Amino acid sequence: MQRTRRFVALFLVASLIAGASSLRASAQATGPAPASLDEVTDGFGAAVKADVAKLRAATDAFHDLARAQAAGYPTTTPNCVADSTMGGMGRHYLDRAIYDDKLDVEHPEMLIYAPTSDGKYQLVGVEYVVPFRLVPDSATAPRLFGQELRPHRQFKYWYLHVWAWTKNKAGLFSDWNPAIKC
Questions:
Q1: What is the domain count for the chain?
Q2: What is the pLDDT of residues 112-144, one digit of tens each?
């Protein structure tokens, strides 16, 4: 009888430890909670805040990478982009079906995911792009969120990053995010 009680007690302790480890692992799998709209748009006016709110509503489902891939973003994992002094950008998933000259706040051409401590990916931002073949780099820069897109001559497109889901100390529209590590 005493042996059975000891076995049951050990089993219960082991179960509690395993359960706590499982809870910890599942909390890490989701990564840190996304930053609030107010956090990411701090210092910007109502128009930018409204556009970022629309962007967040349109991309909220894409916190699940599988849902983004089902919507047309690639299923292959791109390289993680980082700079040793500036920080990172993360992994850029380009939906080639909307790689055109139309900019739509609710349909970003790229979704940006950053690696989490458990090896998964977390949606942190987006990138809007317009190819030079449709809007040459000699033309007036396209605008979105009240910002001019910047020319990326190496990749031959106009671009704008928007860190809609994570606070970026370098700025909402900065190229690099010092908190992102690859």
A1: 2
A2: 999 988 888 999 999 999 999 999 999 999 999
